[in-house]
Amino acid sequence: MAGSSEAAPDHGRGIVIMDDWPGYNLNLFTYPQHYYGDLEYVLIPHGIIVDRIERLAKDIMKDIGYCDIMVLCVLKGGYKFCADLVEHLKNISRNSDRFISMKVDFIRIKSYRNDQFMGEMQIIGGYDLSTLAGKNVLIVEVS
Fold first, then answer.
1. What is the band of 70 on the pLDDT scale with cuts at 50, 70, 90?
2. Protein fold of 46-140
3. Which residues pair with 110 in a beta bridge?
4. Burial of 11 by CB count in 10 Å (0-12 exposed, 13-18 middle, 19+ buried)?
5. Terminal-residue alpha carbon distance, the chain
6. Are 17 and 44 in contact (CB under 8 A)?
7. Structure pTM?
């Protein structure tokens, strides 16, 4: 861990940020001027996030065995992460000896009405989910 003589604990595939981690100094980065005065430090630099998404894409391809994938992106929060993940999956496919077909669709999940939990989720948009039976489906949701 940068700035610490203590070794970061090994938690398998994840990145651990200790509660007392002061973050990276802003002088190490460039960032939009409209954030000046609002930011105090950077916890996770963009490059680390990109590397982690690439590693996740490799793990997904390993887990599914380079089979065709149907990606369901849960909007709105998952859009950017899903786009980045799909791009890495496509790059892996392009650089492999087997082309992987990927289809992407978008759905929204509604579980609240007027700030009240409805007790069930309503899926809006996307395919008839019954058509996904027997397929490799990757659901991308950011919460």
1. very high
2. Rossmann fold (3.40.50)
3. 122
4. exposed
5. 26
6. yes
7. 0.73
Question: In this structure, what is the dihedral angle of CA atoms 58, 100, 90, 49, given to the nearest 10 degrees?
Answer: -20
- CA distances to 45, 73, 108, 134 from 99, in Å: 32, 21, 29, 20
Contact assessment for residue 106 and residue 73, using Cβ atoms and an 8 Å cutoff: yes
Q: Domains of the chain: which residue ranges?
A: 46-140
* Helical axes 79-94 vs 46-64, angle rounded to 10°: 60
Structure tokens at 139: 């659901």
Q: In angstroms, rounded to a whole number, what is the distance separating the alpha carbons of residues 16 and 72?
A: 28
Q: Give me 98's structure tokens.
A: 């087997």
| Cα(78)–Cα(87) distance, integer angstroms | 14
Tokens coding 18: 């200790």
Task: Give 97-129 pLDDT, tens digit per residue.
Answer: 888 889 999 988 877 666 766 677 778 776 677
